[in-house]
Structure formats: structure tokens, C-alpha cells
Task: inverse folding
């Protein structure tokens, strides 16, 4: 198996056509077809469906595509690591950020990278944390912002933020609470809009409520941050969440966040790298900058409800 065969296969999947892939790769189509056939023979599996509409990956092809992408990225990282200067890092760095953190961290980080390391191309991936863990394990991303749930042993973990969860409603909501804080029992009396159980936030809330001897009543389960925002703005209920995913709406005055006075609900945000795949100079520079930006956001109060662990 050759690296060029991996590049050829990825190009065919990306472009959905042998002819289009051949044009992009600057090779003749018969040569591309031959290399694909050799690859399928070596793997003992059909990787692509061929039809009048083009080409698409089989189940085996989809699995191989993920590995091929990871291998090609690691080869590119290795070349960059040799070519880079530690004082002037260059290259591409892929960083994964959960949807519920990107609202606070993504834009400040992008601006900081462009200002301090203009020769680094930062690729931000916004995903559920479970997807980011798999991508970090396979080497498809260099770094990931994750939540410390005690299951991060495969990674090098650097604590960043302790993020407080708050009671959040739209401004002038019928579920708004007078005062500067709210008790947990009072927060549980209103319809709550919460992420599903596959999100790390939900089990933390459920466990705290159970330990307090209380119960959650009416819950609207929504896994999309965008839809959850819309439901809050439509005054369908309140939520208990970290501020980060709703930071823009709170800063604009569209939503209000109150601390829960008698209960401490929080999550620990960490920065992770693989123990098995070394970071390039560019990735190490971005790693340091992520920690610096998070520290600055905490110190300035721009990341509401967050305290630094650095």
C-alpha cells in the first residue's frame, strides 16, 4: 500500500467521481482506476460503489476513508515538524471544540492565532465531545477541548476552566426570577430545556438533583444548541447550563443568567493531546495559546461563570 493510493482514494470519495478526481490529481483516469483496483485487491474489499451518478464509499470504504485521512494528516504533520522553526511555527493545526464551549472560546482564539502566528492555519472543528475523542485518538485532529469526566486516560490533559452552570431564561421571561440568584428547588419548578443524556451536562444536573432529594419535572430534551436557543427565546422554559453556549445572547441582553445559590453545579474544561502522536511546533504553539486565551477570558470576566484552573 502506497501513500499515493491513499491520496487517490480520498480524492475520489471527496469529489464523487473518477474523472473529477483525476483532473484534481493531474493524472489520467485509467491510471487512477488501476491504483484503486490494486488498493481494493490488497485490502480484499470493495471500497466504492460505482453508478451513473458517480462513486460513493461502501461501508468498508467509509471505514478506510477515516483511517486514510488520519494517516495523510500525520504524514503532513511529520513533514511540517521537520520543516518548522520553533521560533516561527508554520503549518496546519486541527483543534476540536465542543459546541457548548465554542461560543466563548472560538472567536477570541481565531483572532489570537491570526495576530500571533499568522503562518499557522488553524482548522476549528465543532463537534460533540464524544466525536472529538475519537478524532483525537485517530490523529485526525491535533488537540481537543474536552470535559474531564474521569475517562481521559488516553490523553495528555491540561486543566483550563471550571465552568459554573447557571439558571438561564430569555429576558422578560415568565420564568424569570427576581433577585441575583435562585435556589435549586425554585429552578426545578419551571419547564426545563436541557440537552439529552448523551451530553455530559445532563448527568451532572440529574445527579445533583437526586443528591439534593429533589426531582426534575417537565423537561424538553433538545440536543442542538441552536434549537435550544430558539426554544429559550420563544419562552418555552428555562435551562440550567454553562454560560458559554449562550454567551452572545446574554451579552446582547436577550437572555439572563443567574447563579444557583444553594448548589454548586460545574464542569471542568480541559485541553487534550494524544499521548502517542507528538505535537508539531505549530500545534504546541496553538496549545499554549489556547491556555493563554482561556486565562485572559477568565481574568477579564468575558467568560461568564468561568474560573481559571491554570
Result:
Amino acid at each position: 500500500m502506497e501513500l499515493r493510493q491513499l491520496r487517490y482514494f480520498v480524492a475520489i470519495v471527496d469529489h464523487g467521481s473518477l474523472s473529477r478526481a483525476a483532473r484534481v490529481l493531474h493524472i489520467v483516469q485509467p491510471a487512477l482506476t488501476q491504483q484503486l483496483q490494486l488498493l481494493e485487491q490488497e485490502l480484499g474489499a470493495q471500497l466504492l460503489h460505482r453508478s451513473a451518478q458517480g462513486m460513493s464509499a461502501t461501508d468498508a470504504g467509509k471505514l478506510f476513508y477515516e483511517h486514510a485521512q488520519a494517516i495523510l494528516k500525520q504524514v503532513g504533520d511529520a513533514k511540517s515538524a521537520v520543516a518548522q522553526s520553533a521560533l516561527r511555527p508554520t503549518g496546519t493545526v486541527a483543534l476540536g471544540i465542543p459546541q457548548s464551549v465554542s461560543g466563548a472560546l472560538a472567536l477570541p482564539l481565531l483572532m489570537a492565532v491570526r495576530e500571533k502566528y499568522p503562518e499557522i492555519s488553524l482548522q476549528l472543528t465543532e463537534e460533540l465531545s464524544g466525536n472529538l475523542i475519537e478524532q483525537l485518538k485517530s490523529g485526525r485532529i491535533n488537540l481537543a477541548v474536552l470535559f474531564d469526566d474521569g475517562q481521559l486516560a488516553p490523553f495528555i490533559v491540561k486543566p483550563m476552566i471550571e465552568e459554573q452552570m447557571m439558571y438561564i431564561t430569555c429576558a422578560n421571561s415568565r420564568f424569570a426570577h427576581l433577585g441575583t440568584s435562585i435556589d435549586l428547588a425554585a429552578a426545578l419548578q419551571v419547564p426545563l430545556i436541557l440537552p439529552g443524556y448523551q451530553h455530559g451536562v445532563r448527568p451532572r444536573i440529574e445527579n445533583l438533583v437526586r443528591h439534593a432529594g429533589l426531582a426534575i419535572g417537565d423537561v424538553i430534551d433538545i440536543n442542538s444548541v441552536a434549537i435550544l436557543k430558539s426554544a429559550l427565546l420563544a419562552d418555552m422554559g428555562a435551562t440550567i447550563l454553562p454560560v458559554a453556549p449562550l454567551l452572545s445572547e446574554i451579552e446582547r441582553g436577550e437572555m439572563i443568567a443567574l447563579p444557583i445559590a444553594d448548589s454548586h453545579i460545574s464542569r471542568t474544561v480541559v485541553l487534550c493531546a494524544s499521548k502517542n502522536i507528538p505535537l508539531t511546533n505549530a500545534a504546541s504553539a496553538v496549545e499554549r495559546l489556547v491556555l493563554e486565551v482561556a486565562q485572559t477570558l477568565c481574568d477579564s470576566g468575558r467568560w461568564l461563570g468561568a474560573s481559571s484552573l491554570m
About this structure: The longest strand covers residues 155-170.
